């Protein structure tokens, strides 16, 4: 069966006997410019899910984030799809995109990718009443974010809150340790089969001390010569008089 491309902004592809692929690249939620090529919305994800016939989907994410409510909406859409969702963080899943990533039955991170989490944020203009209302709304949103992260986070809610307070970037090892990812992907070049060889004597481990000693042994002569030339001692007055006397004889 040839590849089947579904007409969405996500470049969804289905191939026989393989998981479908969905690319969630770009801003989470509608952009100010209504640029559908750069927007990842709950509506569009739901439409793609309806059209995908495969029972398993590889969802690839690379996004700085966006609208927190859209992130939660996409998270819930993926969780409610009754499909196996494999999340791949291709480079970065930040802010609302990290919420989307939590929908994975498995979350995979290439070793050079990152996950970023922080508290809900907003831009507000108004009087004290408007600001107080915004704070209350943000606190409610934070509770929704915490509930989502805690479905995976291995620590306590207080520890998670501390991470959100700091606006934390997590590398792959850190994300796995905290339960926010499952596996680190390492890309290894395929090796050509080689003829069996005679066993070699084990090499001495390359410690920092060994490397330093080798460099000193290699460059000691040159370094010493430079030092002597640079700091050559001038003769004293007495030595100069003795030398003059010797020359006069």
UniProtKB/TrEMBL annotation:
Superkingdom of origin organism: Bacteria
Gene Ontology CC annotation, any one: endopeptidase Clp complex
Gene Ontology biological process: protein quality control for misfolded or incompletely synthesized proteins
InterPro entries: ClpP (IPR001907), ClpP/crotonase-like_dom_sf (IPR029045), ClpP/TepA (IPR023562)
GO molecular function annotation: ATP-dependent peptidase activity; ATPase binding; serine-type endopeptidase activity
A family per Pfam: CLP_protease
UniProtKB keywords: Cytoplasm, Hydrolase, Protease, Serine protease
Family matches, as Gene3D superfamilies: 2-enoyl-CoA Hydratase, Chain A, domain 1
Family: Belongs to the peptidase S14 family.
Name listed for the protein in its UniProt record: ATP-dependent Clp protease proteolytic subunit
Species, as recorded: Loigolactobacillus rennini DSM 20253
């Amino acid at each position: 069966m040839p590849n089947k491309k579904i007409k969405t902004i996500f470049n969804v592809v289905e191939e026989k006997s393989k998981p479908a692929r969905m690319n969630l690249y770009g801003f989470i939620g509608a952009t100010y410019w209504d640029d559908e090529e750069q927007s990842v919305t709950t509506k569009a994800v739901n439409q793609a899910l309806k059209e995908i016939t495969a029972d398993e989907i590889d969802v690839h994410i690379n996004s700085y984030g966006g609208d927190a409510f859209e992130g939660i909406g996409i998270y819930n859409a993926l969780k409610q799809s009754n499909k196996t969702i494999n999340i791949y963080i291709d480079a970065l899943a930040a802010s609302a995109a990290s919420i989307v990533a939590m929908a994975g039955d498995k979350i995979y991170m290439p070793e050079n990718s990152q996950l970023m989490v922080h508290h809900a944020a907003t831009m507000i203009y108004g009087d004290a009443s408007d600001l107080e209302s915004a704070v209350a709304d943000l606190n409610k949103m934070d509770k929704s974010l915490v509930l989502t992260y805690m479905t995976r986070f291995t620590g306590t809610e207080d520890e998670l809150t501390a991470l959100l307070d700091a606006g934390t970037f997590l590398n792959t090892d850190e994300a796995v340790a905290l339960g926010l990812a499952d596996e680190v992907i390492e890309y290894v070049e395929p090796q050509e089969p080689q003829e069996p060889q005679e066993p070699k004597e084990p090499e001495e481990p390359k410690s920092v001390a060994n490397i330093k000693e080798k460099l000193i042994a290699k460059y000691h002569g040159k370094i010493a010569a430079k030092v002597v030339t640079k700091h050559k001692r001038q003769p004293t007055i007495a030595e100069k008089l003795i030398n003059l006397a010797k020359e006069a004889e």
